[in-house]
């Protein structure tokens, strides 16, 4: 019994719980986007902002409380990728979010996840994110937020959307190249 509690204590902590809560917000956000209306638009924005806060606090609290775990190292980036993929698919369905960009975003994330699995199986280590990956995720978040805000019929953000598409695509490509070099180095080391 003591061993089980110890395992739960190291895996089930505040940061991992927040990451789990963030994963639970994904279907809510997707449904709110697909069924957006003047009435549920404020709820959509509130849930998206809540999820962003969860994302910030899970990492912050893990470091601050010294509660970084292997599960958290997997759960946090997985939650990021699931969130981005789910919202991108919903935005493709509901808005003018470019299909080609959605394929690029989801394809890149699948490649990074696959490379991470290969590295984990071969080296039993979890690849950490890099600065360019974090910047790319922030830009993806901004792009998604702009498209989400633009769902409101009285808001027009076309120029801002174009700007962030170009910026995001540039960083997606750059981060993919960087992750490729890391994958090759780790795989051959």
Protein described:
The protein is an all-alpha fold. The chain has one domain: Four Helix Bundle (Hemerythrin (Met), subunit A), CATH 1.20.120. Helices cover 82% and strands 0% of the residues. The protein contains seven helices and no strands. The chain has helices spanning 2-11, 14-34, 41-64, 70-94, 99-123, 131-149, 158-188. Residues 1-7 have low confidence and may be disordered.
Largest sheet: none
In round numbers, the mean pLDDT is 88
CATH architecture: Up-down Bundle
Number of strands: 0
Structural category: mainly alpha
Our measurement of the CA-to-CA distance between the termini, rounded to an integer number of angstroms, reads 40 Å
Low-confidence stretches: 1-7
In short:
The chain has helices at residues 2-11, 14-34, 41-64, 70-94, 99-123, 131-149, 158-188.
